[in-house]
Amino acid sequence: MNVEEEVEKLKVEIQRLGNVQADGSYKVTFGVLFNDDRCANIFEALVGTLRAAKKRKLLTYDGELLLQGVHDNVEIILKPAAQPATATTAESVIKT
Fold first, then answer.
1. Which residue among 3, 23, 40, 53 is buried most deeply as judged by most CB within 10 Å?
2. What is the pLDDT of residues 30-57, one digit of tens each?
3. Is pLDDT of 93 > 90?
4. Helices (H) and strands (E) in the chain, counts
5. CA distance 91 to 11
6. Reduced to 3 states, what is the DSSP secondary structure of residue 31?
7. The dihedral formed by the CA atoms of 78, 49, 37 and 81, expressed in degrees to the nearest 10
8. How many CB atoms lie within 10 A of CB 14?
9. Residue 11 parent element (H or E)
């Protein structure tokens, strides 16, 4: 599995385990992700996949390296998916 596939699977797991926020983002703690059996079976290197997703600006969390136990309460926030521009939105931009 390549990095892009792992990042996509990580997004799915964060949506499954996390709580949706008012802005459309999802929030989950590192401990919940790390201790989930399904995530343990999917990700050989969860921390590496988190870092790759953070580098791509798909999610945010405090710090660089997350360690089990020490960082279990660190919140990981999956940013809301970018909404494609609709024809109505594009037309209103052109008219103004």
1. 53
2. 999 999 999 999 999 999 999 999 999 9
3. no
4. 5, 4
5. 32
6. helix
7. 20
8. 23
9. helix 3-17
Alpha-carbon distances, residue 19 vs 16, 27, 46, 76, 96 (angstroms): 8, 5, 19, 11, 38
Least confident of 12-21, 60-69, 77-86: 77-86
The arithmetic mean of pLDDT across residues 84-94, rounded, is 51
pTM for this prediction = 0.81
Q: Is there a contact between 30 and 71 (Cβ–Cβ < 8 Å)?
A: yes
Do residues 21 and 78 lie in contact, with contact meaning Cβ atoms separated by under 8 Å?
no
Q: How far is CA 90 from the centre of its chain?
A: 28
Q: How far does CA 86 lie from the centroid of its chain?
A: 25
The 8-class DSSP code of residue 76 comes to: E
Given a contact cutoff of 8 angstroms between Cβ atoms, the answer to whether 15 and 39 are in contact is no
CA distance 34 to 67: 9
